[in-house]
Amino acid sequence: MGDIMKTIIHDLDESYDLLFKKKYENVIFANGKYAPCQGCFGCWTKHPAQCYLKDALQTVCRQIGKAEELIIITENCYGAYSPAVKNVLDRSIGVSTPFSTYRGKQMHHTLRYGRKEKLTIYTYGHITKEEEKTFRYMLERNAINYGFREFEFHYLENLKQLEEME
Fold first, then answer.
1. Within a domain: 76
2. Which of 60, 71, 112, 126 has a Cα-to-Cα distance from 93 of 20 to 30 A?
3. Domain-embedded: residue 91
4. How many domains would you assign to the chain?
5. Could you give the CA distance from residue 23 to residue 102 in angstroms, rounded to a whole number?
């Protein structure tokens, strides 16, 4: 099958950003310095898969949409993504279209870039059992919405575990 296109979204510090950029072609550093989604839906309708905001996330829909595997590394925030990672994901709504279809007997938006292989979440920081349950459920729903065939959840007790990540 060859190498698959992986995209990494992370909220770690700049040293990890440099480390990931040595290993992966497509790294999105969720450093919190991006404008939030304005909710205009222009990336859905007026200029598909491109945000009108002129910053580093302007084409994040395309970056995520073309990834066969998406890896998200995020601090746990009450069983969900950190605000910086959530901002990146909010700005990527253009990976789908405003049209709807059935997938798994449920209504979902059609995928602009087709089905993907795998969505993997690595979370760190304090997490309760209930937060982990919430996170796993959100991951399952996100995988369906983004069109991923598989998904995995990993809790990192120590960030050094990222060095083992392929």
1. yes
2. 126
3. yes
4. 1
5. 37
Q: Which two tokens stand for residue 103?
A: 């997938």
C-alpha–C-alpha distance, residues 86 and 73, integer Å? 11
| Radius of gyration for the chain, computed over Cα atoms and rounded to the nearest angstrom | 15
C-alpha distances in Å from residue 147, one per residue of 38, 43, 54, 56: 24, 18, 27, 24
Asked if the structure places residue 79 within a domain, the reply is yes
Domain containing 106: what range?
Answer: 6-33+40-164
Strand order from edge to edge, sheet including 69-75: 26-29, 6-10, 69-75, 116-124, 148-156
The average pLDDT across 82-90 equals: 97
Identify the weakest region by mean pLDDT among 45-49, 102-106, 140-144. 102-106
Distance CA 91, CA 60 (A): 7
Residue 87 above 90 pLDDT? yes
Q: Which two tokens stand for residue 64?
A: 């995520």
Residue 1's pLDDT band, with cuts at 50, 70 and 90, is very low
- What residue type is assigned to position 6 of the chain? K
CATH number, position 64: 3.40.50.360
> Among 36, 133, 8, which Cα is nearest to 76's?
133
112 in Cβ contact with 59 (< 8 Å): no
**Angle 24-1-22 from CA coordinates, rounded to 5°:** 10
pTM for this entry: 0.93
